[in-house]
UniProtKB/TrEMBL annotation:
Keywords: Repeat, TPR repeat. Gene3D superfamilies: Tetratricopeptide repeat domain (1.25.40.10). This is Uncharacterized protein. TPR repeats lie at residues 134-167, 168-201, 202-235. It comes from the Bacteria.
Length: 281
């Protein structure tokens, strides 16, 4: 590291000797301008100060070398730092379920406002974060039913029924999807399953009755309409559906009586009034 110091000392020494010789040789003396004399004096002082500092530094280095000799190893071992691949760093990936709730909430709001495309994107985004999100699949199923996308609805509700077999709403949703596809036998099976899981829900009986009516099983359809009315006698939709089935079967008198009773409770029900007029005239 300090191998250049001897050469530097020799050069500075020679420069000093030459300067002294020039100053003391009469033949080489000649008048000099003031600014050159000042420059010469400055150079002489600078060389003297530099020589002294270098000399002191050399002495200090020699003293330090003498004191530390034998304390430090001559050959230090080479450090081997681990590469990035060797480091076992913790993974900070997105936690399962993180952010899915916010997307589901946004999807529900979009669905209520009628923005179907935005709702679908939000629900699918939630599923990408949490592939087993029950709420996201349920929202997506209702969305597909509203769009009458029977195939997509069937696949979605099949997933929900498989993973949540005790939820009547998912069996009912799958039954509705099958109904929209025209797969009435499968729809009946799902509606019956929903009734088993939730026997007090009149809507499951209504759905079953409508499916049976679509299959031209009027007797069974009427039976289930009546069962639904027993659970919820004030549901005008169930009463109107029962009247339609009775009219098809030829039992117009009972249908007329049911419609008159409905109009007493709901005088502004135009559907009931129109059906009653059709029976009478």
């Amino acid at each position: 590291m300090f191998s250049f110091i001897p050469q530097l000392l020799i050069i500075l020494s020679l420069a000093g000797i030459i300067l002294i010789v020039v100053r003391r040789t009469p033949e080489l003396r000649f008048p000099m301008p003031v600014h050159l004399k000042n420059a010469e004096n400055f150079a002489a002082r600078w060389l003297k100060a530099a020589f002294q500092k270098i000399w002191h530094f050399t002495l200090e280095v020699k003293e330090l070398t003498r004191k530390t000799e034998g304390l430090l190893p001559k050959h230090l071992p080479k450090l081997h730092l681990p590469s990035r691949a060797d480091l076992h760093l913790p993974s900070f990936g997105l936690r399962k379920g993180s952010g899915a709730g916010a997307l589901i909430e946004s999807g529900e709001l979009a669905l209520k406002s009628g923005d179907i495309m935005a709702a679908e994107q939000h629900f699918i985004g939630a599923i990408k974060i949490d592939s087993s999100s029950e709420q996201a699949f349920a929202g997506l199923g209702r969305l597909y039913l509203a769009q009458n996308k029977a195939k997509e609805a069937v696949e979605t509700y099949k997933f929900l029924v498989k993973h949540h077999p005790d939820e009547a709403a998912y069996s009912a949703g799958l039954g509705q999807a099958f109904y929209n596809q025209g797969a009435y036998d499968s729809a009946v099976a799902e509606f019956e399953r929903a009734i088993e899981l939730e026997p007090g829900n009149s809507r499951h009986l209504l759905n079953l009755a409508m499916t049976l009516e679509a299959m031209n099983h009027l007797e069974e359809a009427i039976l289930n309409y009546r069962r639904a009315i027993e659970l919820n006698g004030h549901d005008s939709l169930i009463i109107l559906k029962l009247c339609d089935a009775l009219i098809k079967k030829g039992e117009k008198d009972e249908a007329e009586q049911l419609l008159q009773n409905l109009l007493l409770e709901e005088p502004t029900n135009n559907q009931a009034r129109e059906k009653l007029m059709q029976i009478k005239y």
